[in-house]
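anyone seen this seq b4? input:
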Amino acid sequence: MSGDADGEFTRLAKEYLDDRAERHPPAATDLGDHRYDDRLADPSEQARADERRALDGFAARLEAIDDSALSAEHRVDAAMMAGSAARRVFELDELREHTWNPLQANPGQAIYQLLARDFGPLPERLAALAGRLAQVPAVLAEARRQLGPMPRVHLETAVGQFAGTIALVSGEVGQALKDAPPSAPQLGQVRTAALEALTEHRDWLSARLAEGAASDGFPDPRIGPRRFARKLSLTLSTATDADAILARAQADLDRVSEEIAGLAAQIAGSARPGVVRQVLDQLAQDVPDDTNILEFCRDALTAQTAFVTDHRLVSVYDDPVELIVMPEIDRGVAVAYCDSPGPLEPLPLPLPTFIAVSPTPADWPPQRVASFYREYNRHMVHNLMVHEAMPGHYLQLQHSRRFKGTDTAIRAALRSGSFTEGWAVYSEEVMAEHGYPGAGDPRAVRMQQLKMQLRTIINAILDARIHAHGMTEADAMALMTERGYQEEGEAAGKWRRALITSAQLSTYYVGYSEISDLARELKAAAPGRSDQEVHDRMLAHGSPPVRLLRTLITA
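predicted toks r here
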């Protein structure tokens, strides 16, 4: 009986992922599925209607499978598939971002994917690139037909990121052609047409921005309490609702504020008023700059790898990693990110993970650059590299790649953002609590980790209060700069990010809360287990939502 249900689900899961890959080719490329590398997604309303019907069909077939007859691992996969389908329906039916979010139409990432990694011979990747570039004019023309009034922050960000895509097609594609001259004729005409279409679209967005500024006619970027609650539930796949998450975050903000105040008093030798700000200001004097930030991050990664190994915190693998300057097309939302190879790329893995770090833009005035590096001082960068690399995203995703517990690709293709971000935040705490010295003083790392924990908590509060409770910019800035001790520039960037991305900022805090709760339970249940045994067990099932992981390892 179980075998029949498992076999039926395995077939259904494959069909679902195949359908998803064909409808969203750039997402497939990102996962390491290269069957549709020469295509962009069809943005037409007809294509969306076809997808909506297909999702109803997959949901009905999944509902018809007897969940109790599935293996434990397949039950997790089935729940992840159901959540994925439900989120896609919500996006199509309710969010409809293609009508108001101009960032969605940017083909920059779909182009960059084919240039960044050597997953195949360069001539083959450039042939696929020619296919995608040929579709750019029609895709952007359709986007203009569908886009209505757009929020100011989305327009401003889109104009900048489309400029980055233009630079990518004119610059990096040209460089790639120098390494593969025979591909030039195939790319020549479509590249020229794509550049013209990208420029036309950027100029169209700029005109919409100017029109809105002249008439003060921008719509509110907030998605509202009902849609936010639904999106948060689908994004996090947690049993906790939006109000409960906000209440716990408010309580944790007070708790961590007390912790950082106590540590600052210990460092300063006094509990005088303002001691946290004073200690953080002192630490912020030790700064990197644009000329040495990447090298500093490389050294930090080396030190962190040795520390994790020596302290046996979690099993370490040696998959390749490269630190790179963040591509311009991705700037404007986050300071750094971990870009791992697609989880469907075959092992053994020759492709590197990229840790991308954003330098300060060339047009920033000196005072803004100084503020940036006060926020991302050397001690904070050590903590940031723990999050993005070791034992955060880079290491966790290496473990995730090695999960072979089911015969479906669901766990790889639909990995949970709250699990991956939650683990990275949790890993910051683990390293700090074990005395990771960073630039020499473990207390300095701990101060920055607690400051980052405050930021993580505040992220969740901002996410909910902005989109569901109408929080003002002034109140948000005060919360970040006063309770979170953030630099003005960092806080201003987070305000913009919170407006642009709903529900994503909550993944850090909720994922961390769930993972830290689970780790405590596992240690309490078996006090003799080492940190490495506990952590390896938590990372042994891919990257499912924590509530589903719990069903596998606490039974």
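The first strand starts at residue 321 and ends at 325. The chain has a mean pLDDT of 94. kinda curious what u guys think
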